[in-house]
Amino acid sequence: MSRLETLLKALRSFYGALPTPPRDPFTLFVWEVLSVHATPRKRDAALAALKRIPAMTPDAMWRAPQKKLEQCVTLAGPYAENRLQALRTGVDLFRRSPNLPSVIRGPLPAARRALKPFPQLGETGAHRMLLFAADHPILPVDARVSRVSRRLGYGDAVDNFKKQSRSVQDALTRELPASVDAYRQAFLYLSHHGGATCTESDPHCVICPLLADCPEGQKRTLHR
Ligand code: SF4
Predict the structure, then answer these.
(1) Could you tell me if the CB of 32 is within 6 A of ligand 1?
(2) pLDDT digit string, tens, across residues 154-171
(3) Among residues 30, 102, 201, 205, which one has the fewest Cβ atoms lying within 10 Å of its Cβ?
(4) Domain at 3-17+140-222: CATH code
């Protein structure tokens, strides 16, 4: 078992089972839009409300009364207008490309091209789509994954987020089996850890299950 696999095993027993992002591409797109600047609880409340309308297919969302959509999206928190705009753009793209779900599950170059017109996804969101909704073994590196990984000693410190993400991604994938399941687990646990314990300004190293093998944690707890 690699060092990273051992660390992930420790996170799995610390946090237990974690929910995974939706498998359906359109639902995952909506989930991404609702996740920005939202807590998981608020995002899930908004998603559940959209399911009740119902507005969880591109056609159903397109037909849904604007007022009802607004009420649902507002449950995610601020930036409702930005979210509604992003949803409108996504609904339009999904309706114009009904074969999008099968394209993204096909060869990677075409899958990447098909996701390019979704600017609201960004690189990490596109990678999450490829991994969770299209079964491609690609490891998404968001800000939390990047932070936790760097503190654990993976990847180089670069002041360009994109370059740093790539370097973290390379370092992590060298220690993982190249499988969709391994990448999903790595993303879920590292990202969750970055939000729950290894927070940006005040990581809770003293309760962290990775402390014994974390250079950054050792440094921080030594000076307490
Ligand atoms: S020991 Fe501290 S810095 Fe290291 S992973 Fe845990 S919380 Fe993050």
Answers:
(1) no
(2) 998 888 888 899 999 999
(3) 201
(4) 1.10.1670.10
